[in-house]
Amino acid sequence: xxxxxPKGNIIEGDQILYILAKNAINNHKFxxxxxxxxxxxxxxxxxxxxxxxxxxxxxxxxxxxxxxMRQTRSIIGGENSGHIINxxxxxxxxxxxxxxxxxxxxIELGKSLNELSDGLELIPQFNCNIETDLQELSNNLITKIxxxxxxxxxNGRVLVRKSGTEPVLRITVESKKETxxxxxxxxxxxxxxxx
Length: 195
What we know:
By secondary structure, this protein is α/β, with parallel strands linked by helices. It folds into two domains: 3-116, Alpha-D-Glucose-1,6-Bisphosphate, Chain A, domain 3 (3-Layer(aba) Sandwich), CATH 3.40.120.10; 125-194, 2-Layer Sandwich (TATA-Binding Protein), CATH 3.30.310.50. The protein has seven helices and nine strands.
C-alpha cells in the first residue's frame, strides 16, 4: 500500500510505519517496538530511535514480519513495500484498514500526511538485480561481499541477498551520494561475475 500526499508525493511503507509508530506512543498496547525487514530504511530506524522506539528487523515477507512481531510483542510491523500489519486491528496486512487508521490520525491531529512524517529523513536507496545461478553462489561469499562493501561506506548500508522468488541476486545500497552507490553496485557486480 502507498498513500499520496497533498502535493502528489508518494508516502511509502517506511513512512507509514513511522506515522503509525510515532502516533502509537500513548497507546497502552504499544510497547515502543516495531518490526520492519532487512530492507527497512536506516533513516527510519534512526528517526524511531530519536522517538524512543526500537526497530526489529526480520527477513522479507509478511510471515516473517508477523513471527517477529509476536516474539517481540509488537503491534505494528511491515515492509517498505507497504505491507503493513497492525495487530490492534488484524493479524494480517490490510491496506484499507491501514489507510483508515492513518486518516483517523490525520483527523485527530489536524495534520496532513506530509506533516505526520515530519522528523523522518530516509536515506536514498539504490537497487540492482543481477541475474545469476544462485546455486553457484555460496552464502559465505555473499556475506563476505556484503561485509567488504559495507566497510567502504561511512554513512549508509549495503545489502546483498538472494531473491526468494526468482534467480537473481538483489543489491540494495543506502547512500546520500548516488555516484558512490553506483560505484559500490559496480564493485559487487564485478565480484559476482568473477566468482
